[in-house]
Amino acid sequence: MTISVDFTQPLTNDYVKEETFFQSLPLLEIKNLSISSLGENKKEDIKLVKNINFTIKSGEMLGIVGESGSGKSLTACALVGLLPKSLKVTEGQIKLHGRELLNLSEKEMRRLRGNEIAYIFQNYQGSFTPFIKIGNQLIEALRSHRKISKLDAKKKVLIWLERVKLPANQVFTSYPYQLSGGQLQRAALAAALMFQPFLIVADEPTTALDVLTSENILDLLVELQKEYNCAVLLISHNLNHVLKRTDSIAVMYGGQIVERGLTNEIRKNPIHPYTKLLLQARPVLSRVVPEKLVVIPGEPGLVAEQGCAFALRCPKSFKKCSILPKMQSVGDSQWVACHAADLEADYTNASS
Amino acid sequence: MLSLVRKRLLQLVIVVFILSIFTFGLMKLAPGDPVMSILNADEMMVTEANQANLRSDLGFDQPVYVQYGKWMHGLLKLDLGTSYMSGKPVWNEMMERLPITLQLTTGVLLVMFSISLPLGIISARYPRKWPDQISRILALIGASIPSFWLGLMLIYLFALKLQILPSNGMGSFAQMILPTFTLGFSLAAVYSRLIRAGLIECFSKDYIQAGRARGVKEWRILWVHAFRAALLPVITVFGLSMGSLLGGAVVIEILFSWPGLGSMAVDAIFNRDYPVIQGYVLLTGVFVVVVNLLVDLSYYLIDPRIKQGKEGSN
Amino acid sequence: MRFVYAFFIKTYLTVMKMKNWPPTALLGLILLITIVLITAIGPLLIPNDPYMANMAERLSSPSLTYPFGTDHMGRCIFSRIVIGSQATLGITVLVITTVILIGIPIGLVSGYIGGRVDSIVMRLADGLIALPEFILAIAIAGFLGPSLTNLMISVVLVKWISYTRVVRGIVLSEREKEYVLAARVGGCTTWRIITRHLLPQIISPVLVLATLDVGKIILIISSLSYLGLGAQPPAPEWGAMLSDGRPYFQTFPELMIYPGMAIFIVVLSCNLIGEGLRDKLGEKSI
Predict the structure, then answer these.
(1) Domain limits for position A135
(2) Which of chain B's ends, N or C, has fewer CB atoms near its CB within 10 Å?
């Protein structure tokens, strides 16, 4: 905790991190966001992310779960303005502290990346340029945002490598290929936390790592997040990780958020059939594993073109599902987009 | 690293050996009698005795393998024989002309890179936009235009019509412009596409996204992160295209009357001056292999992973 | 002969199956077809005898009788260019066919059978690859003496090796694959495996390589002819025409412009087709 004092250094922009002021407001607000791929003549082609809404408060950890292709990573890329050129945000707003990010110039966006929103990638081998030493890359990142001497930057980098429990001096002079996956992801974590950003986007940060290492890394992430009170957007298809660590969850299917709310609520009372199936399909170690795990029917990635995206695979689908269901609140802190939600709620109540 | 140098040096020896057999064999297969052509060139009365004397002077009366052995022995001492025409040692003659060819090729490389680098980078940044399309058209033209014809057209335009540049000769800067541009343009056209392809591939790499996500400035992304990786394919092709460069230099030297190695070789061909042709082919071959060796070594400086891989296995 | 038939029929089928040609490749195809047609009916088109000198009308400007004017001997430039296309295209087709017919079988044998054949071929390739194509062609033309036949021999000697390399590379990677092993287990003869199973794999890379090479070969031949190492006067070969006209270039540039244009257009159309094929068949490496 003592070290953290060293880092309340002057920021390059006058965007001072006054947490008390912002605490009540959502840190990040995403409203009605849609992302489409662009066809030949720059026209909208396929809508990949469809009108999604969510908010993150400072210090909150939000998990986004969903199968691959559900638009999780695209949403995250859109946050930092790094969508591939063939894709485009077609509607909606992304607000950080009430500031609209989609209107920012490329230069302003660059200043914001790393400094205010950090990004941790799934592919740890791709986090660092292969022919530049880790230390130099971290110094480069620091000096892109702060006017500090190379020596000061080096000191700071070494401290941060230590903070993420790496052998600092050795890692500093290593090339990326000389480190293990876990070490690289820790270094990536150091690169992300170095600026004490408001928000860290962790895009499946541990999917490519083994079970034990990924637990360690996520624990470290949670620990440091608490210490510096930054928000984390954790994207994962590992439901266990998400359930264990996040404060709230958003479940995505086919580019839509089908259910979101506090993690505890959703764990106890999932309403959307997809969420339910996801929870059932997960082996729970504390219980005896049933002979056969529940399998979500249908082909993964099968998305209905109209109405509810999950309708084609949903065991409870009916006529009305061909119309897009609206997000409706269930209880105080849970929202769901499903026509069967009312019936479901009744059903759950009756059975319990 | 050392093992690679050793391997490449061994390859160099093999290549020189094959080349020596190749050129020696061709010389023996060549129609016509070099003895007659030497004697004819002296414009003397050719007698049987004259012929026999010269034949034994040149060692042509001995079996082929003895001739090859002698020739090879001389080769190791950089003795490539004497030119039939000038009577000077081939090695000396080549060394006199080498600086001229080097001057030409260096100029060509400068022109080539100063055209292809900006063009390649711009078209990689804006793929399928108009700068890219223009560079694509330029590349097609460059690959399709005969360089000697381009040279002729440039001479016509700049030396004859506009009269702002000299049409031939060498020495001054103005005389460098047309020859270097003629060959440089054709090569640059091909290169800009290679640089473009290399850069586009690099820009799609994850670590470029990661660098951007850390907020690294765009020019640093381009010059520090992407460019180094893009250099690998560019350098590889640079090594391979040494051939087009040297081959092109022959035509350009003739066209602009530069007394370099290329024009020496062409003169030698018309005069059936076989030792000179032989020397030229050998020198060019060795040069290309050495350049490719340097290209291989430069990979180490660019990408530390290669060093690791190679040294780890040895 | 069966091998040759198999190769050409498969090539034809590969090209016919392709859909959605890029417009630039189509343009190249149309250009090339036009040029081939002109070459074929050339003798009917030409207004004058391409060999007939007429010193009274030397170096005359374009007129109705002489569409592109006349050269230093008073010969019709237009007629010479039209007839010259026979030489250029004929030589190129002959060279590329020979190169393919030599390169592919050696590559197949070297890759599939391996052993001593393979190592000899590869050492030879190493030696030849160090010599720039153009220099090697100069050397061979130089030793054998300047003539069109020797020029063709030298280009074939230079070019076959790259086809052998490509084919050998593909065969080496394919021969361990399950389908080849399955065929062997099924009792296929080596001959049948090579012609039935391996040959189709090499068609598209060879096709791409060949179309792009046609342009290069035309350039090499015309450059060497320009240096005086190829077609000899008075043959109306384009490169030789340029070489012929060089002394009169200052006073009469038309002598140089038209033959050069002809070379440029033919090479351009081949390159357009080659690029289209490469994009279509996905041979990025060549």
Answers:
(1) 128-196
(2) C
Q: Does A58 lie in the same domain as A73?
A: yes
**Subunits adjacent to chain A (3 or more Cβ pairs under 8 Å):** B
Closest by Cα among B255, B240, B301 to B1: B301
Verify whether the Cβ–Cβ distance B213 to A119 is below 8 Å: yes
> Which of B207, B208, B214 is most worth mutating to test chain A (most A CB atoms within 10 A of its CB)?
B214
Task: Give the pLDDT confidence of C147-178 residue by residue, as tens digits.
Answer: 888 888 888 888 888 888 888 888 888 887 88
**Helix crossing, C199-227 with C238-245: angle to 10°?**
20
Residue by residue, DSSP assigns C116-134 as HHHHHHHHHHHHHHTS-HH
Touching status, chains C and B (3+ beta-carbon pairs under 8 Å):
yes
Same domain (yes/no): A306, A325: yes
Per-residue pLDDT, A18 = 44
**Which residues form the domain of B259?**
90-308
- ipTM higher than threshold 0.95: no
Number of domains in chain A: 2
Residues of chain B with pLDDT under 70: 1-2, 4, 31-46, 58-59, 233, 237, 240, 305-314
The 3-state secondary structure of A44-89 reads EEEEEEEEEEEEECCCCEEEEECCCCCCHHHHHHHHCCCCCCCEEE
| Pairwise CA distance, residues A202 & A199, whole Å | 10
CATH code of the domain containing A300:
3.40.50.300
- Please tell me the predicted confidence (pLDDT) of residue C263: 92
pLDDT tens digits for range C211-235: 888 998 999 888 888 888 877 777 7
Q: Please tell me which of the candidates B214, B220, B229 has its beta carbon nearest to residue A113.
A: B214
- CB nearest C132 (choices: B32, B242, B272): B242
The reply to whether A76 and A217 lie within a common domain is: yes
Asked if B281's CB is within 8 angstroms of C139's CB, the reply is yes
A35 close to A71: Cβ distance less than 8 angstroms: yes
In a domain, residue A2? The reply is no
Nearest Cα residue in chain B from A80: B213
pLDDT in tens, B214-266: 888 888 888 888 877 777 767 876 776 787 888 889 999 988 889 999 999 88
Q: Which CATH class is domain C24-47+68-281?
A: mainly alpha
**Does some domain include residue B36?**
no
Q: Does A86 touch chain B (CB under 8 A)?
A: no
